[in-house]
């Protein structure tokens, strides 16, 4: 007979270990394209629209990106944020129909096509305009399609098949109709005013097309000899001006002074070597600025003959500093409230064609506005001595001419922030040219209406209100004309006899009908003037305007051809773009809509920051710190980018780079593992297991309370459009509340209890709710992963988490008192865990189940849980309660659990070994195994 002991039985097969096909590795770069194909195959977008009929619409009107080049990380940020907000609104019960769009006209595309011409040695001006426009259209169409596919790869849901574009024929017709509305209501006029002009691109530019860079400007101090003044001692003295734009001297027609400024009449008695001044010169300079000027001009000994207020200069007349060289006219001295003593000499030379203040002062006093500069930045014949010279190369010639006239006091250089074209990166000039403007303060009162609309708009963040409000309050009339070829023309005829634009709705209707059928190209076809003017007018009597409209007007009018024509409500619920669009798309959309509809085109405006590298630097190829979304998707997948966006406070500038992406991948791994554990622990779950809320243990009811809090948080974000902090809360819920607490506690019941035990069924009831809630709440952000986690449990060929709404959370789940109780329980549990960690580090135990701590609880905590519940909550094999007096400090004593380790649940209990059937099991496990 063999007396050898029997081999201990392996009970692993009796434990309910998690089981799921949902893999631990996301492998998103491979899985996401397959998911996109599935959504396309099943017609997910079409199903959503069909099922949403009759719901309250939610419209986020898409600010159109420019169809020019691959997407960059800023595009990804923008479209992902839009997509999350749209998806969340849809799942909150709305019909969120999103129409993506593109801005397709304008200078950047022309510039690219011209670059191709230059590379081939072709002359753009020699190409027929319709051929050139066709090449621009083809260029934009190519990049529109490239960007569309890249946006789709990001997981952005929308009506990609029926997107909008400003170059669509119906869009061009609608833009022309919007221009016509301003023509007919009298707000559109042609006027001569200084605008920012790009000599390189030969067109006026909007403020939104300008960026500021450091620029080295030549400077000069110039002398204007006083010919006439009320005080005899001023006649023959020289007023000294200072300018950073010497090229504007030929356009000078006045000098401005400040009425309250103290000016010194200076007699020069000594000069430094090389000075352009001479002993005996009499100069007028602002007293506070005299020391600085004396140093720059090389003045040595000098005396101040007297000090006078600027008001004494009223009526004085000076000579142009180039008198005798074709500039034989008087220069009046005029009071200007913009003159300060911050820099210069306290006198400002006035060239009415080259500055806003200059122009306004000139108009006030009826000064002539000479056209001294051509479209390409060269001087015209109205700048004698400099004709044909480029303004940015003119300073040396102007220095020499003034030196010859004895009117140059000093020269220098200044590095300062100067406006540049955002496309060519070249400096711009202020230049008065005839342009088309929309009046801000006429009978239509666009400024006042816009400011009123701003007051009624919801801004996220709130600071946006003041930003756009201050811009609208201070802005000049809107210059909407551009001297280019690729865009929608301003379809206006001007009477050659009166100079007035022809206001005739019949003409506008004919133009718009032609544009809808043929596109804006119809304006450039032979015989267009006669065609649109009709048989009752002679085309020879009218000028056909060939300027195109500012692309900001085009994109600002997109609401007119995207919202009502597609059955979408106006105004839109939300406009969402980068914070720079307060001066761009938000601004132009507001002015355009207020001018034609009297109201803003939006109810709310949300802005996000810019994307910087990990060190907070602007991205640039030269620094090698560019993060391309295409590369991120190849390495990590789109869901990591989407998580990065929503884990950030998008109202601020965001940072991204290799380390930040690694961190996001780790956060994603935790979320994915939460979903995986849920799925595994729900293996085989059916509705028959469900436990009613009233019968659930407190711990399960606490989890449901937390879900009610998160549900309220998410629904508030949907209503306010403010998602800051929502994703971090969801992640912390998964990582801290679930994985490190609830799951940790309930693993024993889920793995080792009998299948029909109330505790296990209750836990699985809550896990079922958790799976449904987390899949739905993560769906707007982790669009691919949430779908994968949903289908892993509910594999339906036509099913999708994105077809569902957020789960309904009963009001009865909210239980603040229970939440407060469990907050205290977690504090005490933390103290127990700390003691166990010390024992583990000391080598006294290897696992918490080897412990049986003693809890010295103050009286107010004594009834929180029973000893058995404390053991379960602290994940120890036993716990002893030692009640203390009220107010006593909490204390935990470590003790080793007595007994043997159960071979199935690993708890250490004295009862292990008492069962003859299963001597290595505790009594709970013995019963479960027998009932299996």
UniProtKB/TrEMBL annotation:
<feature type="binding site">
    <location>
        <position position="922"/>
    </location>
    <ligand>
        <name>Zn(2+)</name>
    </ligand>
</feature>
<feature type="binding site">
    <location>
        <position position="621"/>
    </location>
    <ligand>
        <name>ATP</name>
    </ligand>
</feature>
<feature type="binding site">
    <location>
        <position position="577"/>
    </location>
    <ligand>
        <name>L-isoleucyl-5'-AMP</name>
    </ligand>
</feature>
<feature type="short sequence motif" description="'HIGH' region">
    <location>
        <begin position="65"/>
        <end position="75"/>
    </location>
</feature>
<feature type="binding site">
    <location>
        <position position="905"/>
    </location>
    <ligand>
        <name>Zn(2+)</name>
    </ligand>
</feature>
<dbReference type="GO" id="GO:0004822">
    <property type="term" value="F:isoleucine-tRNA ligase activity"/>
</dbReference>
<feature type="binding site">
    <location>
        <position position="902"/>
    </location>
    <ligand>
        <name>Zn(2+)</name>
    </ligand>
</feature>
<comment type="similarity">
    <text>Belongs to the class-I aminoacyl-tRNA synthetase family. IleS type 1 subfamily.</text>
</comment>
<dbReference type="InterPro" id="IPR001412">
    <property type="entry name" value="aa-tRNA-synth_I_CS"/>
</dbReference>
<keyword id="KW-0963">Cytoplasm</keyword>
<dbReference type="InterPro" id="IPR010663">
    <property type="entry name" value="Znf_FPG/IleRS"/>
</dbReference>
<comment type="subunit">
    <text>Monomer.</text>
</comment>
<feature type="short sequence motif" description="'KMSKS' region">
    <location>
        <begin position="618"/>
        <end position="622"/>
    </location>
</feature>
<keyword id="KW-0547">Nucleotide-binding</keyword>
<dbReference type="InterPro" id="IPR002301">
    <property type="entry name" value="Ile-tRNA-ligase"/>
</dbReference>
<dbReference type="InterPro" id="IPR023585">
    <property type="entry name" value="Ile-tRNA-ligase_type1"/>
</dbReference>
<keyword id="KW-0030">Aminoacyl-tRNA synthetase</keyword>
<feature type="domain" description="Methionyl/Valyl/Leucyl/Isoleucyl-tRNA synthetase anticodon-binding">
    <location>
        <begin position="700"/>
        <end position="850"/>
    </location>
</feature>
<dbReference type="InterPro" id="IPR033708">
    <property type="entry name" value="Anticodon_Ile_BEm"/>
</dbReference>
<dbReference type="InterPro" id="IPR013155">
    <property type="entry name" value="M/V/L/I-tRNA-synth_anticd-bd"/>
</dbReference>
<dbReference type="InterPro" id="IPR050081">
    <property type="entry name" value="Ile-tRNA_ligase"/>
</dbReference>
<dbReference type="InterPro" id="IPR002300">
    <property type="entry name" value="aa-tRNA-synth_Ia"/>
</dbReference>
<keyword id="KW-0067">ATP-binding</keyword>
<dbReference type="Pfam" id="PF08264">
    <property type="entry name" value="Anticodon_1"/>
</dbReference>
<keyword id="KW-0648">Protein biosynthesis</keyword>
<dbReference type="InterPro" id="IPR009008">
    <property type="entry name" value="Val/Leu/Ile-tRNA-synth_edit"/>
</dbReference>
<dbReference type="InterPro" id="IPR014729">
    <property type="entry name" value="Rossmann-like_a/b/a_fold"/>
</dbReference>
<feature type="binding site">
    <location>
        <position position="925"/>
    </location>
    <ligand>
        <name>Zn(2+)</name>
    </ligand>
</feature>
<comment type="function">
    <text>Catalyzes the attachment of isoleucine to tRNA(Ile). As IleRS can inadvertently accommodate and process structurally similar amino acids such as valine, to avoid such errors it has two additional distinct tRNA(Ile)-dependent editing activities. One activity is designated as 'pretransfer' editing and involves the hydrolysis of activated Val-AMP. The other activity is designated 'posttransfer' editing and involves deacylation of mischarged Val-tRNA(Ile).</text>
</comment>
<keyword id="KW-0862">Zinc</keyword>
<dbReference type="Pfam" id="PF06827">
    <property type="entry name" value="zf-FPG_IleRS"/>
</dbReference>
<keyword id="KW-0479">Metal-binding</keyword>
<feature type="domain" description="Zinc finger FPG/IleRS-type">
    <location>
        <begin position="899"/>
        <end position="928"/>
    </location>
</feature>
<protein>
    <recommendedName>
        <fullName>Isoleucine--tRNA ligase</fullName>
        <ecNumber>6.1.1.5</ecNumber>
    </recommendedName>
</protein>
<keyword id="KW-0436">Ligase</keyword>
<dbReference type="Pfam" id="PF00133">
    <property type="entry name" value="tRNA-synt_1"/>
</dbReference>
<feature type="domain" description="Aminoacyl-tRNA synthetase class Ia">
    <location>
        <begin position="35"/>
        <end position="656"/>
    </location>
</feature>
<dbReference type="InterPro" id="IPR009080">
    <property type="entry name" value="tRNAsynth_Ia_anticodon-bd"/>
</dbReference>
């Amino acid at each position: 007979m063999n007396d050898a002991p029997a081999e201990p039985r392996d009970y692993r097969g009796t434990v309910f270990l998690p089981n799921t096909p949902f893999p631990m590795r996301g492998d998103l770069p491979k899985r996401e394209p397959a998911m996109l194909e599935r959504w396309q195959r099943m017609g997910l977008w079409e199903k959503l629209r069909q099922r949403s009929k009759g719901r309250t619409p939610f419209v986020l009107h898409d600010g159109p990106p420019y169809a020019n080049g691959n997407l960059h990380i800023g595009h990804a940020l923008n479209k992902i944020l839009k997509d999350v907000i749209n998806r969340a609104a849809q799942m909150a019960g709305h019909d969120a129909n999103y129409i993506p769009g593109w801005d397709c006209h304008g200078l950047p595309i022309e510039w690219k096509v011209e670059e191709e011409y230059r590379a081939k040695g072709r002359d753009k001006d020699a190409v027929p305009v319709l051929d050139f426009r066709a090449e621009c259209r083809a260029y934009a169409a190519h990049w529109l399609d490239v960007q569309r596919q890249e946006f789709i790869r990001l997981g952005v849901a929308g009506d990609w098949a029926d997107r909008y574009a400003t170059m669509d024929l119906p869009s061009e017709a609608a833009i022309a109709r919007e221009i016509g509305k301003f023509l007919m209501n009298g707000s559109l006029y042609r006027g001569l005013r200084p605008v920012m002009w790009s000599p390189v691109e030969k067109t006026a530019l909007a403020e939104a097309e300008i960026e500021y860079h450091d620029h080295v400007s030549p400077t000069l101090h110039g002398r204007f000899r006083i010919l006439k003044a009320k005080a005899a001692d001023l006649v023959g003295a020289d007023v000294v001006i200072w300018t950073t734009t010497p090229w504007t001297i030929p356009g000078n027609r006045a000098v401005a002074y400040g009425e309250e400024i103290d000016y010194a009449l200076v007699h020069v008695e000594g000069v430094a070597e090389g000075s352009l001044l001479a002993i005996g010169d009499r100069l007028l300079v602002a007293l506070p600025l005299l020391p600085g000027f004396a140093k720059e001009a090389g003045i040595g000994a000098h005396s101040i003959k007297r000090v006078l207020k600027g008001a004494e200069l009223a009526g004085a007349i000076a000579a142009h500093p180039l008198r005798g060289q074709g500039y034989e006219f008087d220069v009046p001295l005029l009071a200007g409230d913009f003159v300060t003593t911050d820099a210069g000499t306290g006198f400002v030379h006035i060239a009415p064609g080259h500055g806003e203040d200059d122009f306004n002062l000139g108009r006030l006093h009826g000064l002539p506005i000479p056209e001294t500069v051509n479209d390409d930045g060269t001087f015209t014949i109205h700048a004698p001595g400099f004709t044909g010279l480029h303004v940015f190369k003119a300073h040396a010639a102007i220095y020499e001419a003034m030196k010859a006239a004895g009117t140059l006091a000093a020269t220098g250089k200044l590095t300062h922030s100067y406006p540049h074209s955002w496309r060519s990166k070249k400096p711009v000039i202020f230049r008065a040219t005839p342009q088309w403007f929309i009046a801000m303060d006429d009978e239509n009162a666009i400024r006042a209406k816009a400011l009123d609309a701003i007051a009624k708009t919801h801004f996220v963040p709130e600071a946006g209100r003041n930003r756009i409000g201050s811009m609208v309050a201070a802005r000049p009339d809107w210059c909407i004309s551009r001297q280019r070829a690729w865009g929608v023309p301003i379809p206006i005829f001007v009477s050659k006899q009166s100079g007035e634009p022809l206001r005739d709705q019949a003409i506008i209707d004919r133009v718009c009908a032609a544009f809808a059928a043929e596109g804006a190209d119809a304006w450039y076809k032979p015989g267009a003037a006669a065609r649109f003017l009709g048989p009752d007018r002679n085309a020879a009597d009218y000028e056909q305007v060939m300027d195109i409209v500012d692309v900001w007007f085009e994109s600002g009018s997109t609401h007119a051809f995207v919202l009502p024509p597609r059955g979408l409500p106006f105004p839109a619920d939300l406009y969402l773009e980068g914070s720079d669009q307060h001066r761009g798309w938000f601004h132009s959309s507001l002015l355009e809509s207020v001018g034609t509809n009297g109201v803003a085109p939006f109810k709310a405006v949300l802005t996000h920051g810019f994307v910087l590298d990990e060190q907070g630097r602007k991205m640039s190829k030269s620094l090698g710190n560019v993060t391309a979304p295409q590369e991120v998707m190849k390495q990590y997948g789109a869901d990591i980018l989407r998580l990065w966006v929503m884990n950030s406070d998008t109202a601020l500038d965001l940072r991204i780079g290799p380390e930040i992406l690694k961190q996001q991948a780790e956060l994603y791994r935790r979320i994915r593992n939460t979903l995986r554990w849920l799925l595994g622990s729900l293996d085989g779950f059916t509705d028959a297991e469900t436990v009613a809320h009233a019968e659930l243990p407190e711990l399960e009811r606490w989890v449901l309370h937390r879900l009610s809090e998160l549900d309220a948080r998410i629904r508030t974000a949907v209503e306010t459009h403010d998602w800051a902090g929502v994703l971090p809360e969801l992640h912390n819920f998964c990582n801290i509340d679930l994985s490190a607490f609830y799951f940790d506690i309930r693993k024993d019941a889920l793995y080792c209890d009998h299948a029909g035990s109330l505790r296990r069924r209750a836990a699985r009831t809550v896990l079922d709710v958790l799976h449904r809630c987390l899949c739905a709440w993560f769906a707007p952000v982790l669009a691919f992963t949430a779908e994968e986690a949903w289908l892993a449990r509910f594999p339906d060929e036509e099913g999708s988490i994105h077809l569902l709404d957020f789960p309904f959370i009963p009001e009865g789940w909210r239980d603040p008192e229970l939440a407060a109780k469990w907050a205290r329980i977690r504090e005490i549990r933390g103290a127990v865990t700390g003691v166990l960690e010390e024992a583990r580090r000391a080598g006294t135990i290897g696992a918490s189940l080897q412990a049986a701590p003693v809890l010295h609880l103050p009286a107010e905590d004594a009834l929180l849980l029973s000893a058995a519940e404390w053991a379960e909550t602290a994940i120890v094999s036993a716990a002893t309660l030692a009640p203390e007096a009220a107010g006593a400090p909490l204390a935990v004593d470590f003790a080793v659990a007595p007994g043997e380790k159960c071979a199935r649940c690993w708890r250490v209990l004295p009862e292990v070994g008492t069962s003859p059937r299963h001597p290595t099991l505790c009594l709970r496990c013995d019963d479960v195994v027998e009932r299996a």
